Amino acid sequence: MKTIFITGCTSGFGKAIAEKFAGTGNRLIITGRRQERLAEVKVQLETDYKVEVTALCFDVRDRQACLEAIDNLPSGWKNIDVLVNNAGLAVGRDTYDTASLDDWDLMLDTNVKGLNYISKAIIPFMIERHSGHIINIGSIAGKEVYQYGNGYCASKFAVEAITQAMRIDLLPHNIKVTGIHPGAAETEFSLVRFKGDEEKAAAMYKGFTPLQANDIAEVVYYVTTQPAHVCINDLVIMPTAQASGIYFHKKVQ
Ligand code: NDP
Ligand code: 8X3
Predict the structure, then answer these.
(1) Which of 24, 86, 96, 227 allows an S-S link to 8, with CB 3.0 to 4.6 Å?
(2) pLDDT(207) > 90
(3) What pLDDT is stored for residue 252 in this prediction?
(4) Could you give phi then psi for residue 28, rounded to 5 degrees?
């Protein structure tokens, strides 16, 4: 049994990753902002999989809240084997000149600074135990810049840079660092990106089969089950109908 810390478990990848690790007998620390949903996920995991779950409700943009939540974990729960930095979002799909500064701030504060706060709070426990695995959920948007992606791409390129930096600097501490970069996946992601516009969000997935949250959960689990001397550094996972950030093969409907 391992202790797995996953951010952003109230929907999408995070929830599916939590289910996968619970189903394989691990204990979990799950996080998110939506208190009610987080509580529901906790009860569901405990009931369905009979595993121990700690739920921490906070905003990853709030540095103090991140540090306090992790510092206040009971000592047994600080033995974190795997950290999955998953919480994140895209907001807006505009040209660089028209994109709102608030959207940029929200993405950089969440995807970059939030990931940093969480990682820097947890890494000392891993260093102390000379063991650990950090998995950062990046994106194809962190590998290629595409039209209307500016702020989101900037945030995910930063995740890519941080992932590489962690891998280099944590080398003496025996900590594995993996970057996982999905293409289009059907979660609440597009609804958030289009600020609640359901029609625009649904249109993103028309004419092809997108990735599902479970596909990513399987891959995250896979990278954590390799032998101690093997680290999968970097993975790009796309729907079969997607070749890059912008090239899709969509059926005309
Ligand atoms: P969802 O919107 O379904 O899930 C996002 C999760 O992040 C939610 O649990 C949300 O919880 C949490 N979250 C967002 N902002 C914050 C915050 N400020 N503080 C704490 N938690 C937060 O989207 P996905 O599951 O698709 O996204 C997960 C990750 O995968 C993101 O980093 C995203 O960029 C990345 N990704 C997504 C792709 C896709 O096409 N879906 C493709 C490539 C990467 P709550 O709202 O309760 O706080
Ligand atoms: C989400 C995938 O293609 O919208 O990270 O950038 S994409």
Answers:
(1) 86
(2) yes
(3) 80
(4) -125, 145
Using CA atoms, how far apart are residues 141 and 217, in angstroms rounded to an integer? 19
Length of the chain: 253
What tokens were used for 165?
């930096």
User: Is residue 65 within 6 Å of ligand 1 at its C-beta?
Assistant: no
Helical residues (DSSP H) of the chain, grouped into ranges: 12-23, 35-49, 63-71, 101-107, 115-129, 150-169, 189-193, 198-203, 213-224
For residues 120-142, give the mean pLDDT.
Answer: 98
Q: What is the pLDDT of residues 52-78, one digit of tens each?
A: 999 999 999 999 999 999 999 998 999
In the numeric block, which tokens belong to residue 156? 């995910």
The CB density around residue 91, as the number of other CB atoms within 10 Å, is 20
Q: Is 152 a catalytic residue?
A: yes
List C-alpha distances in Å: 203 to 57, 93, 133, 136, 208: 32, 14, 36, 28, 11
Within 6 A (CB) of ligand 2 lie 139-141, 149, 183-184, 245
CA-wise closest residue to 50 among 78, 75, 27: 27
